[in-house]
Amino acid sequence: MTTNPHPLRDRALAFRALHVPGDPLVLPNAWDAMSARVVAEAGAAAVATTSAGLAWALGAADGDRLDRDTALAAVGRMAASVGVPVSADIESGYAKDPAGVADTVRAVIEAGAVGVNIEDALYEPAAGALRPVAEQAERIAAAREAADAEGVPLFVNARIDTFLRGGGEVDRTLERAAAFLAAGADGVFVPGAVDPDTIGLLAAGIDAPLNVLAGPGALPVTELASLGVARVSVGSEVAQAAYAVVRGAARELLEKGTYDSLEGGLAYTALNDLATA
Length: 277
Description:
By secondary structure, the protein is of the alpha/beta class. It contains 12 helices and 8 strands. It has one domain (9-235): Phosphoenolpyruvate-binding domains (TIM Barrel, Alpha-Beta Barrel), CATH 3.20.20.60. The protein has helices at 9-17, 33-41, 51-57, 68-81, 98-111, 133-150, 162-165, 170-182, 196-205, 221-226, 237-255, 268-275, and strands at residues 25-27, 47-48, 86-89, 115-119, 155-159, 187-189, 210-213, 231-233. Strands 1-8-7-6-5-4-3-2 form an 8-stranded parallel β-sheet. The longest helix is centred in the last third of the chain and has 19 residues, at 237-255. It is globular and about 60 Å long. This is Isocitrate lyase/phosphoenolpyruvate mutase family protein. One of its GO terms (molecular function) is lyase activity. Keywords: Lyase.
């Protein structure tokens, strides 16, 4: 007796294959269905969500404050709006324990996403601390097991916040990466690592695709590729830039009564056509 493969299996495999050291997957992160469509229309091979941008669009703060159902409903709208793979930033898993992380992963798959970012930072009760390695490994293992049980080769990207919150030691990062990969992660995301030598050491020392966070002032994608990076994302930077346009246009209109900030916007018909595609 044969079992029909999960409808997302091929998409998940296609997303997994995009992670190539030296030829990185480039992800301009999106936060709602329309930004996802704009990113895909620009030529992105996949769409990654930004938890911060997604939360802000819903009037909430980032940092494990949004509830799972609300966040994943937004992810579902994004996944349904594009024809490319979608990876969901699920913060620390929208759950207190590994069983809850497994529930989240099942909900992610139901929403249509084929990848997740799971971060190892704590927001409560000690904001800025990192979870103990063993505890985080259990959460990643639960995510892996839940996805495998669904028959979806979900790409589990283990975010390690040593450079954002923990002092930025390469050796400590490599130790955490090895533990998380052993638990079932497929890739490692080290936001805050920006120095070329450091990135090179991480790429060489991590036996999996390395994801780095880029943005203004960061190395260009070509240089990151030469260092062995396999995935480049920009987190909330695109959303931040979009909201800067909103604030600038509002201030100009209210304070000066002029409209220069609105120049260069996408055409109404272009966006409407995307929305009806």
